[in-house]
Amino acid sequence: MTPGRRSSTFTRLLRHGFTDATAAERLLDSAELAAVRDDPVLLEALGATADPDLALHGLVRLLEAQPGPTARRELLDTLIAAKPLRDRLLGVLGASAALADHLARHPRDWEVLVTYEPRDLHPGVAEFERGLAEAADPVALRVAYRRCLLSIAARDVCGTTDVAQTAAELADLATATLRAALALAEAAAPEDAAACRLAVIAMGKCGGHELNYVSDVDVIFVGEAAEGADEAKALRSATRLASHMMRICSETTVEGSIWPVDANLRPEGRNGPLVRTLSSHLAYYQRWAKTWEFQALLKARPVAGDPDLGQEYVAALEPMVWKAAERDNFVADVQKMRRRVVENIPAAEVDRELKLGPGGLRDVEFAVQLLQLVHGRTDATLRSGTTLDALQALAAGGYVGRADAVQLDDAYRFLRSMEHRIQLYRLRRTHLVPEDEADLRRLGRSLGLRTEPVTELIREWKQHTGVVRRLHEKLFYRPLLDAVAQLAPGETRLSAEAARERLEALGYADPAAALRHLEALASGVTRKSAIQRTLLPVLLGWFADSADPDAGLLNFRKVSDALGKTPWYLRLLRDEGAAAENLARVLSAGRLAPDLLMRAPEAVALLGDGDGGGLEPRGRAQLEQEILAAAGRADNAEDGVRAARGVRRRELFRTAAADIVDSYGTDTKPVEADQGALVDRVGGAVSDLTAATLAGTLRAVVRDGWGDTLPTRFVMIGMGRFGGHELGYGSDADVLFVHEPREGVAEREAADAAGKVVAEMRRLLQIPSADPPLLIDADLRPEGKSGPLVRTLKSYEAYYRRWSLVWESQALLRAEPVAGDEDLGRRFIELVDPLRYPAEGLGEDAVREIRRLKARMESERLPRGADPKLHTKLGPGGLSDVEWTVQLLQLRHGWAEPGLRTTRTRQALAAACAADLLGAEEAAILDEAWVLATRVRNAVMLVRGRAGDTFPTESRELAAVGRYLGYGDGHAGDMLDAYRRTTRRARAVVEELFYGA
């Protein structure tokens, strides 16, 4: 090479950002680059990287590692011809010596950077799982992990993804890796895997979906015994699996390690068991956990193992997270933790510490988490585990000034980008800004600072930490937070006269009695009295927001008398603002919920979840599981059914309390705007609960009388509102009983057994006790009260074939198996489907018969003296009108419209509208009337404690119904007018659609 050319090349290299042009010239003259050394595209691409010298050196190593000339030529051709690959590959080589080492060891891995399709731009867990799928051992897993990491780094350095997206991808890759490691551990110990259920909960940055390139992956393990396994043995198995999974990720092999898996955030830290059951976790957090542990749970997220168990863990602990701000000295505890972190940084490093130093990443994270914990208990939009998402939500909610939020967001993104690029270089876990000039230059160039990389980097870094420092101090030490984290104190002491005046002003009808209750609750020097003195002014305001404040206060005294010496009850009232308000609403809304609560006051604990999750209705399967288990543990049928009824009482309270809270609204939760959703929620919850109770009762009776197997197959078919998932609080369970003798069993023996089961079920469900009875009504059976209670499937078939009347076909529209033999239930439905959805629809004679029956019912069944226009069931535009109209449409068109083949009124009405069998306006009018009438019936039961189809006449009860329906004091007349108006419009639609007027 001539001196002139050398000089020219040397200058060009310096101009493109090379710092060691002599070495770069030598590398460009190597045999591997002979074919492209003069290509300007290559030099331009190298000059665009964070460290051109590093990129060129890595490229030569990669070419040298190729298995032969053909492979080298393929790489070079692709590199020059394909800009996406060129940018990705050289970008990675110029930013990460560690990934260059990986490519040198695995020279064909560059090919993962060739594909440039939209689906490759933002991969998720599923894509990463595919990338790791072939890893059959820990070494292969490390190789596959680095291969995936290569693509993430490429998107990062090329700007395809921003820092938040990169962090999310790293968290998704960690999720896939934990799953793969657990699968390897399970494959190595299949006996352990079979013995237990193990869930891996990600914490920290992995849980928050904001992981670094190199970071400990914080986890918590939850284990349960597999079905039939011994718990102690199962936990040992789960511990072995968890330990092996951690080793697979953490241990150093010929391919290095992936990252340490850190389980020290678990209860009791290093001193606690590695794996606990869910109940053990709950017991610890309920009794021993410190404030920082709840703060850590903000980011808890199930990532591997048993998904159901993981979700159960998060669902069980999430409510406690949002109670943390109610803890004594909460804000002070968080501030103390932050100071302790800073104090533990070595003095020589504090100014270079990106994460933990003043104005660093942890300052932003602490500030955001503190604001989340304080305000998130009342605002569910703030409950993100991801820092930047939570910061955005805080700004949107007005908890942080928008300008402050923008500055914090910019600062956090810049500092996280610095942290990423520092770690990417050697793939080492560090948060220290380097001191070496070359390292700072590479870091600055990787962030797009090209003019004076080192100077610009230091300036921007210091500027951002200064912003964080100032904003953090302003937000973190805001004295307002301490007040927000407590219940509003109000007045804690009242003179007798002032108390009477205050009580009268709040609407108490009997202030003297109310004052006696207050004195009983608040006098004394006990802890109980002190807590209640703090709560009472707040409770009095909530009671006053109801139609019957006196009842609310009286009921509160009863609950406190029953539970006042119970430590958890006092903590619940003191520490959980939502619980106190929910309790106040429930105690003052009528008789049903307080009556259910007084029978087992410990159910008040259901009110203690800050976002109302404790009041979420439980699903049918969960209820059945609990009731069947309780019945199975009982010594006899009576004890088993008593246990089932106890669960039913508790769940009725949960449903009623949730209904009241949603209907009244609270300071933390607005009134549910969708009235139909409220009706559906109650109907579904009570129907599921009834079905589960019947299933448990059936199991208890059969086991007590016949052991495991009844001589006949047996199923209960829900009818009416039960089959339609529309039961109210006071509804009976309308059912049909169907049986089928087992093979070899005589019909008489089978019939006797089925009859005894029915008789015993009805008896046990009505035995007087503290639990409300469940009445079983079988009057919709063939031949009504004159027919046998139980029939075989063949008997039903014979009857329906020969004797069935049109009203029975109509009744069967609601038929749905609810408990017992699933196959028999399915065959019963197959039997009745042609009856309820007759081919070609109903004939005119049948339609006339239905109309005649409806007219007769309206004239004969309305109670004497009742106002027809206010009767929710039989009055014009009421439940019967809407349901018969919908059912006639089902009978006439169900054969042709699959959507009409449902037992649920509102679903059938929506399907009829979708099929153009009635207009959208007509459907909306009928739906509104049906929902309103159902709500009134539910309200009457909640208020009076007994079922009723008309509005109460007593003024306080009528006002309470109005309050439930959203009408304030003095607006009961408006409520009645609105009901008449709504049902009058519905009746007009019924006249047209049902009677053909």
Describe the structure.
By secondary structure, the chain is mainly alpha-helical. Helix content is 61%, strand content 5%. The strands form two sheets. Strands 1, 2, 3, 4 and 5 form a five-stranded mixed sheet that branches. Strands 6, 7, 8, 9 and 10 form a five-stranded mixed sheet that branches. It is elongated and about 110 Å long. The chain starts with a helix and ends with a helix. The N terminus is likely disordered.
Can you tag this structure with a few keywords?
five-stranded mixed β-sheet, 997 residues, mainly alpha, elongated, single chain
Largest sheet: 5 strands, mixed
Q: How would the global form be characterised?
A: elongated
Low-confidence stretches: 1-5, 476-495
Helix fraction? Answer: 55-70%
Number of helices: 45
Computed CA radius of gyration, to the nearest angstrom? 35 Å
* Structural class based on helices, strands and sheet pairing: mainly alpha
Secondary structure elements and pairings:
Blueprint (H helix, E strand, L loop, with lengths): L2 H13 L5 H8 L11 H8 L4 H14 L3 H13 L1 H11 L3 H9 L12 H4 L3 H8 L5 H20 L5 H26 L1 H6 E7 L1 H4 L9 E9 L5 H20 L10 E2 L12 E2 L1 H10 L3 H6 L4 E5 L1 H15 L8 H14 L17 H15 L11 H10 L5 H25 L10 H10 L6 H24 L3 H5 L11 H10 L5 H12 L4 H18 L4 H15 L3 H9 L1 H11 L4 H8 L20 H14 L3 H28 L10 H32 L5 E7 L1 H4 L9 E9 L5 H18 L11 E2 L12 E3 H10 L3 H6 L4 E5 L1 H15 L7 H17 L18 H15 L11 H10 L5 H25 L10 H10 L7 H22 L4
Helix pairs in contact: 1-2, 2-4, 4-6, 4-7, 5-6, 6-10, 9-11, 10-11, 11-14, 15-17, 19-20, 19-23, 20-21, 21-23, 22-23, 25-26, 26-28, 27-28, 27-30, 28-30, 30-33, 31-33, 32-33, 32-34, 33-34, 34-36, 34-43, 41-42, 42-43, 43-44, 43-45
